[in-house]
C-alpha cells in the first residue's frame, strides 16, 4: 500500500521518535525503526535466557522473504536468501563458462564487480555508466550494474540496459542495495536482482536477498548449497542433498537468524508505507538539498536520487557539517548525503545552515 503524506509522517514519527537529528547517511547504513529494535531485543533476551525461539526465527525468515518479494513485485518462490552481495553474485560468476563476456560499470561497488574480476578466464569489460547499454554486443553474456551508484547516487538507465541485453541475448544482474526500498523496481524485469538490507531496507547486516527470474536458475552455481537449500531441510542435514528446493529457494544460504528477525520487522514497515510513498518523501528532501547546494555555488550530481553527492565542495565543508552534528560520508572525496524515512525538512535546513556564508 501507499500512504498519504500525513499518515506517512505519523507512522515514521512513531518509528523514529527521539532520534538525534542530522543523520543523512543511509547510503552507508540505514537506521532501525522502533519495531525492529524491539524485535531484536526480544529475540536476544530470549536467547540469553536460554529460550531461543527457533520456530519464531523460521517464521521471521519466511516473513522477511515474503515482504521482500512484495516490495520488488515477484512471487515468493523467486527470492533466494543470502548474507552478502558478493556471496550472491558469486553464484552467478561461478556458473559462467570460460571466456564469457561480462559488461559492468567501471566505478561500480566492488562486491558486484570483484566476483567476475576474480575469474581470470572471463572477459570483464568495464565501461562508463552512461555507455553500458551501448557496450552490449552479441558476445555479451551478462550485464552487471547497480541500480543506483554508491559513490554518487546516479541511477542507471535500466530500461535501456534491459532492452540492449534482450536484443543481444544477454542476462542482466542488478545490484539494488542502494536503490531497493526507495526506487520502485519490478525484479522480474531482470534475470537477477541482489539487495543487502542494511541500507535502504533499514535492516541489520546479514539479511540479503537475491531474486532469480524463472528460467534463469541454470545460470547459477549450486556449488555452495547447504542443507537449507534442500526441498526437505530437516531430512537433508547429513550426506548429499537428495532433492533441492523449488525455484530460487534451491540457492538459499542458511540465514543468520537474528538479522532476519530484524529484517522481517523493517520490511513490514516499508510494506506498510509503500515504495512509491517512500520515493516521494526521499526525493523531495533530496531535491531541496540539491537546490540548496546549487544556491551555494556547488551543484550536486544531477538526477532523481535519494543520494546527493557534491563534488568539488570547499575543504571546510566536512568539518562544518560535522560540527553541526551532520552524519554524512565522503566517497571519492565528494560530500555524500543520503535522505530516507527518518529525515525531515529540519535535517535539510540543518545542513544548509551549517554551510551558509
Explain what the structure shows:
With 357 residues, the chain is an alpha/beta fold. It contains eleven helices and nine strands. It has helices spanning 5-15, 34-48, 54-72, 85-95, 110-117, 132-135, 158-168, 257-273, 275-296, 317-323, 345-355, and strands spanning 79-82, 101-105, 123-127, 140-146, 171-175, 192-196, 208-212, 307-310, 335-338. The strands form two sheets. The protein has a seven-stranded mixed beta sheet, with helices on both faces. Strand 4, helix 7 and strand 5 (171-175) form a beta-alpha-beta unit. Helix 2 packs antiparallel against helix 8. The longest helix is centred in the C-terminal third of the chain and has 22 residues, at 275-296. The chain starts with a helix and ends with a helix.
Which key features would you list for this structure?
357 residues; alpha/beta; 7-stranded mixed sheet; two-stranded antiparallel sheet; 11 helices; 38% helix; 12% strand
Major β-sheet strand ordering: 1-7-6-5-4-2-3
Distance between the termini: 43 Å
Task: Output the number of helix runs.
Answer: 11
Shape: globular
Secondary-structure element order, as H and E? HHHEHEHEHEHEEEHHEHEH
What integer is the average pLDDT? 96
> Runs with pLDDT <50, length 5+?
none
Cα gyration radius (Å)? 21 Å
What's the count of strands?
9
Level of helix content? 25-40%
User: What structural category characterises the helix and strand content?
Assistant: alpha/beta
Proportion in β-strands: 5-15%
Largest beta-sheet characterization: 7 strands, mixed
Amino acid at each position: 500500500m501507499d500512504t498519504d503524506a500525513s499518515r506517512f509522517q505519523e507512522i515514521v514519527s512513531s518509528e523514529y521518535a527521539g532520534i538525534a537529528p542530522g543523520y543523512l547517511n543511509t547510503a552507508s547504513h540505514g537506521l532501525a525503526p522502533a519495531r525492529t529494535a524491539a524485535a531484536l531485543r526480544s529475540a536476544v533476551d530470549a536467547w540469553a535466557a536460554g529460550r531461543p525461539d527457533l520456530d519464531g526465527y523460521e517464521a521471521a525468515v519466511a516473513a522477511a522473504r515474503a515482504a521482500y518479494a512484495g516490495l520488488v513485485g515477484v512471487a515468493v518462490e523467486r527470492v533466494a536468501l543470502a548474507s552478502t552481495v558478493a556471496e550472491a553474485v558469486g553464484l552467478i560468476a561461478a556458473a559462467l563458462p570460460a571466456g564469457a563476456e561480462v559488461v559492468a560499470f567501471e566505478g561500480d561497488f566492488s562486491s558486484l564487480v570483484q566476483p567476475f574480476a576474480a575469474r581470470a578466464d572471463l572477459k570483464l569489460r568495464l565501461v562508463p555508466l552512461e555507455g553500458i547499454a551501448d557496450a552490449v554486443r552479441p558476445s555479451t553474456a551478462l550485464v552487471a550494474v547497480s541500480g543506483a551508484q554508491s559513490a554518487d547516487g546516479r541511477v542507471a538507465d535500466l530500461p535501456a540496459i534491459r532492452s540492449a541485453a534482450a536484443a543481444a541475448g544477454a542476462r542482466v544482474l542488478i545490484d539494488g542495495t542502494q536503490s531497493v526500498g526507495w526506487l520502485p523496481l519490478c525484479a522480474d524485469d531482470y534475470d537477477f536482482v541482489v539487495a543487502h538490507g542494511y541500507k535502504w531496507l533499514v535492516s541489520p547486516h546479514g539479511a540479503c536477498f537475491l531474486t532469480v527470474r524463472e528460467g534463469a536458475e541454470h545460470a547459477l552455481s549450486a556449488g555452495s548449497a547447504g542443507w537449507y537449500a534442500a526441498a526437505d531441510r530437516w531430512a537433508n542435514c547429513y550426506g548429499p542433498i537428495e532433492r533441492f528446493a523449488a525455484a530460487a529457494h534451491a540457492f538459499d544460504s542458511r540465514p543468520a537468524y537474528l538479522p532476519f528477525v530484524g529484517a522481517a520487522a523493517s520490511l513490514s514497515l516499508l510494506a506498510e508505507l509503500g515504495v512509491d510513498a517512500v520515493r516521494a518523501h526521499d526525493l523531495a528532501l533530496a531535491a531541496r538539498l540539491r537546490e540548496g547546494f546549487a544556491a551555494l555555488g556547488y551543484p550536486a550530481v544531477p538526477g532523481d536520487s535519494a543520494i546527493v553527492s557534491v563534488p568539488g565542495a570547499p575543504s571546510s565543508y566536512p568539518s562544518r557539517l560535522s560540527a553541526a552534528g551532520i552524519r554524512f560520508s565522503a566517497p571519492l572525496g565528494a560530500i555524500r548525503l543520503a535522505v530516507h524515512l527518518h529525515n525531515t525538512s529540519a535535517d535539510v535546513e540543518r545542513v544548509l545552515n551549517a554551510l551558509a556564508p
